[in-house]
Each structure stands twice: as structure tokens, then as C-alpha cells.
Amino acid sequence: GIISVIISILSLIIDDKTILHEDLAIVGCSDSDGEMMYALDGEELWYADFKKGKGVDPQPPFVVHTSYREGVYEQAVANQQVCRSNLKVCRSAMKDIPDENDAPSNLVIYPRDEVELGEKNILVCHVSGFYPAPVNVSWTRNGQKVTEGTSINVPFPSKDSSFTQISRLDFVPQIGDIYSCSVEHLALKEPQTRTWGEETLTRPESGPGPAIFCGVGLTVGLLGVAVGTFFLIKGNECS
Ligand SMILES: *[C@@H]1O[C@H](CO)[C@@H](O)[C@H](O)[C@H]1NC(C)=O
Fold first, then answer.
1. How many CB atoms lie within 10 A of CB 76?
2. Protein residue closest via CA to atom 4 of ligand 1
3. For the domain bounded by 106-196, which CATH number is listed?
């Protein structure tokens, strides 16, 4: 389902310390799909999960959560009706204008936290610069498809009217594992793929570690002191 109509409301709030904030609400719909999301300063605060029939607050537990009034999900459902009827009007008005499709311009895969073998972490697949939304993201571990522990956020609009989506995979870094994320988009003939793990998980001890550099430094330093002391004594003897 392609989300074709996006109504975005951008407003600026200035709080008591005169910091500029950017508030964003988006409504989008297609024949088969829909989106309603509220964000502040580029962070998703709330979105409607129309498949599960409820609102989702995706913020991690350590942030102070914004509270939403009763009926915000019902409002989102009502907005979908409005969006679909707008979509119908736009379609007939714009039927002679060809659709523009932009493949993702940027695709990166990276671990959220510093990698510690055997320690829980999250791999992030960051896709941006595409139009229209959404993309499909799939993950593999050593060539095998992985679905458990994956999630994707709703499409986030950028100022240039392209979209960004971020998919996540819970994982535990282990030696020899290789991960990939593949992205499907309307404008791509084949999925675009990025892999992660070759550098970090196959050669964890590549190159001399910091201990060696420290040892060499210390040796050179001590040698300097010894040479210095030698000449100091020599100098005293001569005078
Ligand atoms: C995403 O996956 C769904 C379900 O498999 C499919 O119908 C849709 O065409 C896919 N979208 C893209 C952009 O490839």
C-alpha cells in the first residue's frame, strides 16, 4: 500500500527558555494502508497502529512521556476517512500528472551501542530519501531470514518531502556472524542490501591493541630518562 496523501502540520513552539521546538503531525492514506503520527523535534511520540487497532507510544521507558487525550486513536481513524475522500479528489484532479518515484538515496546499517561480544545490542537500518512511502525492510543473519526481534517505525517526512524509515533488529554480537538488511521500494528493481559484521565480528583483535602502544611509549620514555641521566652524570664529571 502506498501512502499517497500526506497532510503535515508544522508549528513552532517556544518554551519558557526560548528553545525552538518543531511539532509535527502527519496523516497519510492509501487504498489499503494509512498513517497517523505525532512527533516532536524529529522524534515519534505517538502513532496509530491501524492493524492492531490502537495507538502506540514508542518512546523508551526513560523519557518523560507525553500524555494524549482520550479518543486520539478514534480521531486518527476518523482522519483516515477524510484522507481517503481527499485522496479520491486528488486522484481525479491529478490523473494526468505522472507519479514521481524516488528510490532510497541513503541506506546505512550500524549497531546502536558500542559492540561488546555476547552483550545485547540493536542493529539499526536507516533508510532515507525515498518517495512515496513506505519501504519494506527484511533482515538476515548468516544468510537466513530473521523476523523475530525486528521492528520498523512509520514513515517520517523530511523537509524535501522524501521519507525516512528506521528498522531495528535485537541481536547479540557473536564472532563470525554476518547480518544484512534489505530494502524494497517501488522505485527499486531489486532490493538494496547492506551487510554488517565482517569488520567487527570476524576480526575483533585486528592490529596491535592499545596495550602494545602504551608499552612501547613507556619503554621509549624510560630510555629517554636513562640517556638524560647518563649525560647529566657525564656533564657533572667533566666540569
Ligand atoms: C512490501 O511487502 C508487501 C507484502 O509482501 C507487498 O505487497 C508490497 O508490494 C511490498 N512493497 C514494496 C515497496 O516492495
1. 22
2. 136
3. 2.60.40.10
